[in-house]
Amino acid sequence: MRHETTWETAAQSPIRLRGRSHPFLTLEITEHDPAALEQALAARLAGTASFFRHAPVLLDLAALPPAAEAQVAPLVEAVRRFGLVPAAFRARWPEIERAALACGLGRMLEAEQDCATPCTRRPSVIVSQPVRSGQRIYAAEADLIVLHSVSPGAQLLADGCIHVYGALRGSASAGISDDPHARIFAKIMDAELLSIAGLWLSAQEIPPEWVKRPAQLRMSDGWLRFAPLP
What we know:
Family: Belongs to the MinC family.
Protein name: Probable septum site-determining protein MinC
Domain Septum formation inhibitor MinC N-terminal: 15-86
Keywords: Cell cycle, Cell division, Septation
Mean pLDDT: 84
Structural class: alpha/beta
Oligomer: single chain
CATH class of the largest domain: Mainly Beta
Largest sheet: 6 strands, mixed
Subunit structure: Interacts with MinD and FtsZ.
Number of strands: 17
Order of helices and strands: EEEHHEHEHEEEEEEEEEEEE
């Protein structure tokens, strides 16, 4: 559900305040040593840093103990040095929350959901044209269906599943609203980056037997696993 609030004055208001779901990259930080964090980021982002440059990031600091309060600012700076843009945070302890707020980060507002209520989806977003390099398409609360190929440098994002009926050569992120049941389907799997519910694989991590072949990607037991198309 989306909400929109506007203020009407005698003249047309120059602003609109909207509450919407946004596909932030989530970075879970479990290590409060900035040097160790930088080393881990360098290893994890090797070869894919350009995809995340200037990307807004949600820092999940829930694993940090209260005693790590003084390390929050150096950790945030370490993330920024890799071209990421820390924008919001989650924290468990008041000490960590205060430190994150002092760094200029916003507190992430969590929507309460009844787990017994199935997630509702909007009608699928269908793209009838090839997706060119530099294009970014986001299917909010819906599946994304591309009837043609996706060029290198293009980005597909969806809260639901992603279907590509041509070659998938760009990046695809499904289930970005933390839906572990989302899947990615491609007639030709040749992606630069794949992600489901925050877990992702770079092109170098895709098993060779699935490259340039019909395939689907799903999450199982906390791992991303490939399977053939039916």
